[in-house]
């Protein structure tokens, strides 16, 4: 399953609807989108259960397996995402 710009545009639209202030693409969809089997995103501005609701909504709408990571609180992993990922929002 490939990840294309349509997936990313829809992800940004949905993330904004949930109040996201940042959305970062990382992982296989960033490095090799034509070979990606899932979508890895990191998000800021969506807290608590709303983050899980956003993840479920993204996975259902995009019809692709999804990993959604909160950027706050900062960890070594999230700092790596911020350095190497692509800002979508």
Can you tell me about this structure?
- This protein has four helices and four strands, in the order H-E-H-E-H-E-H-E.
- It is α+β, with helices and mostly antiparallel strands and 89 residues long.
- It has one domain (5-87): 2-Layer Sandwich (Beta Polymerase, domain 2).
- Strands 3-2-1-4 form a four-stranded mixed sheet, with helices on both faces.
- Helix 3 links the parallel strand 2 (39-44) and strand 3.
- The relative contact order is 0.25.
- The model has no long low-confidence stretch (mean pLDDT 93).
**What's the architecture, going by CATH?**
2-Layer Sandwich
Name the CATH superfamily assignment. Answer: Beta Polymerase, domain 2
How helix-rich are the residues, as a percent range? 40-55%
**Count of extended strands:** 4
- Beta fraction of the residues? 15-25%
Quick summary:
This protein has 89 residues and is of the alpha+beta class. It has helices at 5-17, 28-31, 49-62, 76-84, and strands at 22-26, 39-44, 66-70, 86-87.
Please write out the topology.
Elements: H1 5-17, E1 22-26, H2 28-31, E2 39-44, H3 49-62, E3 66-70, H4 76-84, E4 86-87
Parallel strand pairs: 2-3
Antiparallel strand pairs: 1-2, 1-4
Helix pairs in contact: 1-3
